[in-house]
Amino acid sequence: MINGLVGKKIGMSQYIEEDGTMVPVTILQAGPCTITQLKNVLSDGYDAVQLGFESLKKANKPKAGHLQKTGLFRFLREIRTDTNEGLEIGQQIGPDIFNKGDRVQLTGYSKGRGFQGTVKRHGFAGQGRTHGQSDRLRAPGSIGMGTTPGRVFKGKKMSGHMGDVRVSLKGIEVVKVDNEHNLLFLKGGVPGARNGLLMIYRSYGHVNAEANL
Fold first, then answer.
1. Which of 41, 53, 90, 146 could form a disulfide with 75 if both were Cys (CB 3.0 to 4.6 A apart)?
2. How far apart are the C-alpha atoms of 115 and 190, rounded to whole Å?
3. pTM of this prediction?
4. Which residues contact 146 (CB under 8 A, 6 or more apart)?
């Protein structure tokens, strides 16, 4: 059984439930993904599938040789499976592995914010402008003692590169599944910018039992 997909973020919108409740949602293109490789316990030590996402016109020789049976794909990602029984190379996987009410885990990269100061990067309050300190509003303040220890400790919250880090969110509710257009509607926001790549996994222990009967 495959417990995950490769997708990308399309954007945010609103979804109106049957009772009239308006829910903020993020729309994801979840697949279609193609199985490009099967791994098993005997040859690799574990069961997994390699999924290809978004077709590619041209690739280098190693990648083209690896994908000669399935066609070229821009992204290749591996997902663990409980068993590979019933799966075969070339098989397409879509969002129908999820149901409304399921909970999923998302892994992606947050938006890059470039070089930022301590106020924006770490939420520092800044300093007052009173008594002539007109340029201290967004200053970080003291970063350590001069003589002892005579250096700045590692991990000190200072200005620097912000964002573009791997982020995972758990327990995101599936509001709607559109199998025809390979879309997933998830409640709330998800990490990353538009068209950002996301890994979508089923959260164990958060499966909608009624939807899977």
1. 53
2. 23
3. 0.79
4. none
- CA of residue 36 relative to chain centroid, distance: 21
pLDDT tens-digit map of 72-88: 999 999 988 888 888 88
Residue 58 identity: K
Residue 52 has which token pair?
Answer: 């290809």
Question: Which residues have a Cβ under 8 Å from the Cβ of 91 and sit 6 or more positions away?
Answer: 34, 35
**pLDDT digit string (tens) for 165-175?**
999 999 999 99
